[in-house]
Amino acid sequence: MTHSYVTHLSCSKCSEVYPSDRVQQLCICGAPLLVNYNLRKLAKVLKQDDLLKRNHDLWRYHELLPVQDAQNIVSLGEGMTPLLPMKKLGSDMDIAHLYMKDEGMAPTGTFKARGAAIGVSKANELGVKGLVMPTNGNAGAAWSLYSSRAGIQAVIIIPRDAPALIRSEVASAGSHLFIVNGLISDAGKIAAKAAADFHLYDVSTLKEPYRIEGKKTMGFEIAEQLNWETPDIILYPAGGGVGLIAIYKAFKELQKLGWVDSRKMPRFVAVQAEGCAPIVKAWEAKKKESEFWPDSRTLAFGINVPKALGDFLVLQAIYETNGCALAVKDKEIIKEQKNIIREEGAFVCPEGAAAFLAARKLRESGWMKEDERVIIINTGMGLKYMNKEGMDLPVLQPGDSIKRLSVLP
Ligand SMILES: *Cc1c(COP(=O)(O)O)cnc(C)c1O
Ligand SMILES: [Zn+2]
Fold first, then answer.
1. DSSP annotation of 230
2. pTM of the predicted protein model
3. Residue 274 included in any domain
4. Within a domain: residue 55?
5. What is the per-residue pLDDT across 136-192, written as a single tens digit (0 to 9) for each?
């Protein structure tokens, strides 16, 4: 069986077509390129049950991924993260069927591993020797680590204010790390110049077409884990919004394959922080694109993106599925995060907690019905965030004993 059913790339705005067998960046019109597949042909030869014999990683969907030759795959075992029922939290929120897709289990600790796995594998297939990426965080860490494994040189440019942990991850991977006294947009400009000067592949968000294909596999997995039933609502903490665009693309492809009900699409919810909510603002004003959000700030650094290149695609996904966009406060995110960890034992990241909080609010407002099947994407593990919890406790000396425990059964 053919490894990939990829046919070509096409522009998300002007529909210009490009071949997928050489390095491509943006369309000449400046918009991102999307990957197309021969789904009609694939539908004839592949059935859902054929997947059952395959490995439990995202490469089980290889026909729907862009890598042509399995030898080019660079993998750290990414994909097939658990879809966990959240019973206690669901009953607290009055949502009967609440699930968490837990991307905290992914290599590198976030779902960025999916984009890096496909992006780096395809770069490897296209003969790329060096790539450059501006990043605020987890994407830079993931692309660094996958590049190390592939033997590709990675040049990573990080704003000075990005979390220290990311610097350490990138530096540990042996990437060429540069710190900019500026914003992610400044890092982006330096990356673009370096790409031209040193013949590097510019893998900034959506400037190469394959990262989205990796993130798309979250959608395939959710459908497969629900036995090919389509959920009612998917809540996603959106920065660049790539994951949301990607999961929507996944469900459209599954519909064309005839693997899920072609009349039902999940409603997509983009969740942002109040300190950086350009997509929410655009959605509230019924706009097709967002505006740059000045002075953006949130402790959920994964969703601190003041202007996304693919904002129009995120908004399109929301409009086309009757979804919505919602901003939540940092303070409340932290409260919800603690609550989730204590109630369910799930050490979610603040971005994931923001999506849970949004579900709570949408249920309270009546937008979400009690018996709807709701999926929260927890995009990463909470351990990646410095947390002062437990740091101010009194310390026992060797030989001391515990005097009192207030909560024994
Ligand atoms: C990158 C990131 C996001 C946002 O992802 P997009 O697909 O770019 O919107 C959310 N959470 C975490 C933890 C991230 O690292
Ligand atoms: Zn175009």
1. P
2. 0.96
3. yes
4. no
5. 889 999 999 999 999 999 999 999 988 888 899 999 999 999 999 988 889 999 999
